[in-house]
Amino acid sequence: MTTRSEAATCARRSGSTIDYARSRFPGEHVCDGQNRLPASGPDAIVFPEIILQLARGEPAAGAPTGAATEIEVEGTLTVHGVTRPVRFHLAAERELSVPGALRVRGRVPLRLSDFGVQVKPAKVVLVTIAVKDEVTVVIDTLLEPVIRR
Question: What's the pTM value of the predicted model, to 2 decimals?
Answer without folding.
Answer: 0.60
